[in-house]
Design a protein that fits this description.
- With 114 residues, this protein is mainly alpha-helical.
- The protein has a single domain, classed as c-terminal domain of poly(a) binding protein, CATH 1.10.1900.
- The protein is built from six helices and no strands.
- α3 (31-70) packs across α5 (91-100) and α4 (75-84) packs across α6 (102-113).
């Protein structure tokens, strides 16, 4: 007895169409192009999750450097001073303090300079 694949194929096509909502032209209407577009979109999503972490760390470092220079030191000297003083505070929190709590950041800078 032969197997008819119409239902399964239709379900696959529907799945691709649902995933390509918001895409343009043939990426949305053609299942072949849609499948290629989904694959590429997932590759970009994976890559950009890594890049988001990179750009945020870059932003935090810039903020820390700007605040450190206001307090009379540089980013590298501040980080080196924190390591020698055994202060374990990550860059995300440090940049948040630099922006929102300048007095607390100034105290951290003084601790690093000792």
């Amino acid at each position: 007895m032969r197997v008819k694949r119409g239902v399964a194929a239709h379900q696959k096509h529907v799945k691709i169409r649902r995933a390509t909502v918001g895409m343009t032209k043939s990426n949305r209407s053609s299942t072949k192009r849609g499948k290629q577009a989904i694959t590429k979109a997932l590759q970009f999503a994976t890559r950009d999750r890594k890049n988001r972490k990179r750009t945020f760390r870059e932003l935090w470092n810039t903020r820390i450097n700007a605040a450190a220079r206001i307090n009379g030191t540089t980013y590298s000297k501040l980080i080196a001073g924190l390591k020698t003083a055994n202060v374990t505070i990550d860059r995300k929190i440090l940049s948040d303090l630099a922006v929102n709590e300048p007095k607390a950041f100034e105290a951290i800078v003084k601790t690093a300079q000792k």
